[in-house]
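Appendix C: a fully annotated inverse folding record. The material below is reproduced so that readers can follow the format used throughout the book. The structure is listed first as tokens, followed by the designed sequence.
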């Protein structure tokens, strides 16, 4: 049975440290959402409540949520808030419903098995973590990572290079990430101005700045389409530059990176950012127009010009 979006004053549930509320953001992908919710509903440690934020509401998606078999709140947003705004709204809704833990998921990924949530909760308890993530693996080849992971000075593309137990102070956020409610109270929710791209990096930065303990539980796996193709090797593979195929993804990626490089804890990366993308556009691609576009978007982000394309 669905609960109201906001409980009445004085009658809503109080925060419960054991209560897990899953938050999923979706838009126009009901079939993928159904697959994701099927695995969320199958967890051996059941989810107590589900919040689905629909950035493009339609009856088909609403029906998928109604039939998921989990007590739920369906938030139909008539404005596309993007991933950042969708997760911000979903997380805040979860907190109003008394969540002790908030488990995040996208609509195009899913837990790899029925024990993912149980493993995350166990590891978080044993290690007293503010946040814990599963390994995010390629949905087509689970031995490969969906996104490259940097350990030290090296980028890893396969999960067997990460170790066997736990990767401290690294987490791929929103793809199966489990946050303690107290963590969100300390670091806040995603900045909706980012819309998409970089919002997870911003929360990662905030957790580091707050001195919180977090990491990746290597025994838990979340499946996601492979995104490693966006990262183009340069300088003989010593560095990489992100270059999404779609123009709109490049817009948000480069603008938001410009913003992030101005934030405390990330400013030291700014010189490397210029070296990386100057080399990529001017030497590797010989694309002066692309470099000018990157430079303009980077400058817009640094100046906090958060317009949409």
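Designed amino acids, in order:
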């Amino acid at each position: 049975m669905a609960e109201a979006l906001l409980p009445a004053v004085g009658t809503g549930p109080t925060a419960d440290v054991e209560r897990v509320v899953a938050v999923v953001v979706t838009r126009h992908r009901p079939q993928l959402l159904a697959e994701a919710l099927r695995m969320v509903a199958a967890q051996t440690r059941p989810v107590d409540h589900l919040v689905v934020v629909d950035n493009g509401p339609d009856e088909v998606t609403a029906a998928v949520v109604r039939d998921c078999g989990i007590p739920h709140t369906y938030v139909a947003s008539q404005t596309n808030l993007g991933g950042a705004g969708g997760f911000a709204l979903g997380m805040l809704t979860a907190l109003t419903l008394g969540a002790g833990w908030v488990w995040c998921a996208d609509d195009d990924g899913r837990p790899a098995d029925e024990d993912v949530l149980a493993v995350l909760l166990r590891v978080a308890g044993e290690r007293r973590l503010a946040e814990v993530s599963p390994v995010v693996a390629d949905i087509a080849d689970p031995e490969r990572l969906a996104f490259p992971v940097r350990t030290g000075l090296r980028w890893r593309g396969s999960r067997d290079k990460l170790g066997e137990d736990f990767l401290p102070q690294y987490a791929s956020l929103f793809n199966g990430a489990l946050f303690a409610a107290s963590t969100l109270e300390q670091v806040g929710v995603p900045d909706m101005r980012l819309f998409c791209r970089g919002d997870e990096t911003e929360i990662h930065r905030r957790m580091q700045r707050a001195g919180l303990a977090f990491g990746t539980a290597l025994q838990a796996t979340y499946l996601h389409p492979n995104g490693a193709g966006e990262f183009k090797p340069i300088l003989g593979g010593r560095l990489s530059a992100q270059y999404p195929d779609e123009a709109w993804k490049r817009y948000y990626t480069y603008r938001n990176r410009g913003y992030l490089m101005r934030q405390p804890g990330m400013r030291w990366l700014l010189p490397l950012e210029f070296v990386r993308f100057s080399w990529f556009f001017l030497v590797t691609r010989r694309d002066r127009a692309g470099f000018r576009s990157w430079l303009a978007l980077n400058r817009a982000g640094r100046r906090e010009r958060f317009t949409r394309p």
